[in-house]
Amino acid sequence: MAKRSNHYELAFESYLREQRVAYVAVNEQRRSLVAQGSLKNLDFIVSPSNNVSLLIDIKGRRFPSGNRQKQYWRNWSTWDDLQSMARWQEKMGSGSCSLFVFAYELVGTRSPVEPSQVYEFRDRWYAFLAVRIADYIHFCRPLSTAWQTVTMPTRLFRQAAFPIADVLDSSPSPQVPESVAALVGSPPEAN
User: For the domain 7-183, what is the CATH code?
Assistant: First the structure.
């Protein structure tokens, strides 16, 4: 089950229920063991009406973040998250698509989505933007080598990200690469 103390995951689950989209919340307490070691578990398996299994890892962020200097479009992740999500997609087959869903809690006057796509949950406002793991891997850059974190440059993230509602409401399936395993290796090196 989803972490019940994580308001970002709770908000997303509530959104899925309200949209009447079939999903499974995954138990995240233990990593899944595989022949090559272990994989971080994803957060949700979502099955919209287009017969594609969306493998979703929620990334909760504030929009904007920061106290003194406002930072919009924060989208960092760990390299382990990327590797695990790519391998999940490979294991689940061609009918699956791994996504990061950035659940932005809106704390200012701006939003990354149209007003009609903003979701209220427990007196907080959220915007859900998705980005394909294959795109994220391709365009990410190191953020911290010590923490093994990466980020997409804002311009590229804004081009690659899309409201999750676009996938849940549409009948065409998202383009799923045949294999993203070739993209996954070691974290990108700092230039």
Answer: 3.40.1350.10
Q: Which residues contact 2 (CB under 8 A, 6 or more apart)?
A: 9, 10, 13, 25, 26, 28, 43, 44
Domain boundaries, the chain: 7-183
Maximum alpha-carbon separation in the chain: 48
The DSSP bridge partners found for residue 96 are: 53
Strand partners for 44: 25, 56
Computed on alpha carbons and rounded to an integer, the radius of gyration of the chain in Å comes to: 16
- Which residues make beta-bridge pairs with 163? 129
User: Which residues have a Cβ under 8 Å from the Cβ of 190 and sit 6 or more positions away?
Assistant: 141, 142, 145
Neighbours of 24 (CB within 10 A): 14
Q: What is the pLDDT of residues 121-170, one digit of tens each?
A: 999 999 999 999 999 999 999 999 999 999 999 999 999 999 999 988 74
Residue 75: closest CA among 164, 146, 136: 136
Angle of CA points 169, 96, 92, to nearest 5°: 150
Model pTM?
A: 0.84
